[in-house]
Amino acid sequence: MGVRFYRTGMNATPLLEPYRLGPLALRNRMVMAPMTRYRAEEDGTPGPLVAEYYAQRAGAGLIVTEGIWPSRAGQSGWRIPGLETDGHVRGWRAVTAAVHASGGRVFAQLMHGGRNGHPLARLAGDLPAGPSAVPGVEPVHVPGGKVPPPLPRAMSRAEVRAAVRDHAAAARRAVAAGFDGVELHGANSYLIHQFLADNTNLRTDEYGPATLGGRLRFAVETVAAVAEAIGPERTALRLSPGNPQFGMVEADPAPVYRALLAELEGLGLAYLHLTDDDRYPALADLRPRWSGPLIANVGENRAPTTREAGEAVLADGLADLVSYGRAFISNPDLPERFARRAPLAPVDQAHLYTPGARGYTDYPALEPARGPASVSA
Question: 233 CB contacts (<8 Å, ≥6 apart)?
Fold first, then answer.
């Protein structure tokens, strides 16, 4: 399938302009954001339904998958996919092949749960472990429903260093599975974020917050290890400075994230994926400090991002691409809908996380356009 370009005219939008992301030619500047959907097999293997889901959405310039655990130690929930075994690699290879056959590009998001999780939701049946023994605040998805979060263990130094190695090993498996790159999940309460935040990192060793460098150490080591394993041009990072979701506390995010970007700026990463927050304008503060490609997400903790909101981000020079989450769930052909100014379908909230096709792959695409709204090249 050729790359799909949209004609100029009354429906033209910069969101649909092609973009060059390192070695990758993206058909537009719209990114499908990572979203947990709980559709993997119980052992973490993605099946044919997962391949169908992502292939339906290959009209995005770039897809970032749901969070994938790099090792069983990082499994945060039941039916969340993994990238630890040969079976996982085979499952994901079918997904990437389906996306590429539809003309899309796809990065795997590696998501180590850290403190997030529950023995009932983990293949190993063990307690999750994070930087410190600080419990989460949200119920955990387990077979049969949700349960209160447990008190996690504090990771030993050896476990912290193993987590760095696990991310690098999973990144190599992602490339073997056909992914175009890897996004490390440093946002929304997962392990990298737990080391950065005030209330989840109470360590007194070299990974602790006694110094700014200690607070940043795990993030920097993990990004560097993955970049060395698969190349910086295939390595990306997502951050959510100041995001209070899931009980995270960051009283003054600016110094932390400015320093982190300074550490990573020279690595030549594929991109930085940055969420904005009403309490800390991360895009305005950090965009001038990052010379590489930047993906903006402006819908976190807010209403779903509209076409107009995405256009404003690009017009203001705050990002090169814009990620959309909820809109891509119920509108697999979202770029086409933006091109035709078509209405958006609502999300089936009752089936966001239920097994099967309902609320997952059963959202219809638009009927083919009668006029020359677009052309393939």
Answer: 22, 23, 181, 268, 269, 270
39 beta partners: none
Tell me the C-alpha distance between 312 and 57, whole Å.
23
Record the pTM: 0.95
CA–CA dist 27, 336 (Å, integer): 12
For the structural domain made of 4-363, what CATH number should be given?
3.20.20.70
Pairing verdict, β 153-154 and 181-186: unpaired
C-beta contacts of 162-166 below 8 A and 24+ residues apart: 162/71, 162/73, 163/70, 163/71, 163/73, 163/74, 163/112, 163/191, 163/218, 163/222, 164/218, 164/221, 164/222, 164/225, 165/225, 166/70, 166/71, 166/73, 166/74, 166/112
* Tokens standing for residue 145: 């429903």
Annotated active-site positions, please? 190
Domain boundaries, the chain: 4-363
Render each residue's pLDDT in the chain as its tens digit; 377 residues: 334 544 444 468 999 999 999 999 999 999 999 999 999 999 999 999 999 999 999 999 999 999 999 999 999 999 999 999 999 999 999 999 999 999 999 999 999 999 999 999 999 999 999 999 999 999 998 998 999 999 999 999 999 999 999 999 999 999 999 999 999 999 999 999 999 999 999 999 999 999 999 999 999 999 999 999 999 999 999 999 999 999 999 999 999 999 999 999 999 999 999 999 888 999 999 999 999 999 999 988 889 999 999 999 999 999 999 999 999 999 999 999 999 999 999 999 999 999 999 999 999 999 987 755 443 33
Q: Tokens at residue 46, please?
A: 């993605």
